[in-house]
Write a sequence for this structure.
């Protein structure tokens, strides 16, 4: 149980294009989803917290106009990297917390999306 | 401020040997502690968690961890390592809210 699917798993695109990454909770409802960024050989850095039906909360230093987050349903959150540039190349991971579960419970992680901007 | 420290960036052990991965945390209240494992190019899988109660917690794949409040530590252990255990291991502290704080990870190499 508690499977989180992330799509695509790998994307390569030209500089200046926008890329959308989807995060789906397959067998549970997730009122809260999280987006992380991971640089090679480094830890995960929380980018934003996405709550269903409301605006995302971004961490300090994360450009909300650059990284658009939408959480339109209880099973889907999307991250759109707008006008992507090579410095945006990274591994992006989403996680989700089940609805109705206490906020100290573990998050369930997707398998990540490797984004490469040429 | 909340933080998680994993002092060992990389550890190499022989298959069948015991393993201990260190994790120290700094948090103002009772922490919720987690260990995750990440295989190359993949997401994170929860190994075990500690909220309260027995300070020795058992997880999946034969892993266990011990919470020591006096040392602000939550070290991960396994009595006999298998080659399939080679991966990146992350310790995390969960705040009552949404924030998770991750350590920088420990890369485990297993020698046959």
């Amino acid at each position: 149980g508690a499977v989180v699917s992330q799509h695509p798993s790998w994307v390569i695109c030209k500089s200046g294009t926008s890329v959308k990454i989807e995060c789906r909770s397959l067998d549970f409802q997730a009122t809260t989803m999280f987006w992380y960024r991971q640089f090679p050989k480094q830890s995960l850095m929380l980018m934003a917290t996405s709550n269903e039906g409301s605006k995302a909360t971004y961490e300090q230093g994360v450009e909300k106009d650059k990284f658009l987050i939408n959480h339109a349903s209880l099973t889907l959150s999307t991250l759109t990297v707008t006008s992507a540039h090579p410095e945006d190349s990274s591994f992006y991971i989403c996680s989700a917390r089940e609805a109705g579960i206490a906020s100290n419970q573990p998050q369930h992680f997707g398998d990540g999306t490797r984004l490469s901007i040429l | 401020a909340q933080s998680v420290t994993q002092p060992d960036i990389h550890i190499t052990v022989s298959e069948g040997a015991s393993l201990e991965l260190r994790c120290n945390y700094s948090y103002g209240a009772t922490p919720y502690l987690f260990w995750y494992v990440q295989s190359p190019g993949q997401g994170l899988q929860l190994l075990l968690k500690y909220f309260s109660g027995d300070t020795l917690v058992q997880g999946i794949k034969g892993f266990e961890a011990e919470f020591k409040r006096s040392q602000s530590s939550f070290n991960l252990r396994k009595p006999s390592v298998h080659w399939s255990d080679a991966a990146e291991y992350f310790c995390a502290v969960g705040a009552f809210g949404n924030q998770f704080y991750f350590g920088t990870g420990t890369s485990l190499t297993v020698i046959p």
Observations:
- Chain A is about 0% helix and 50% strand.
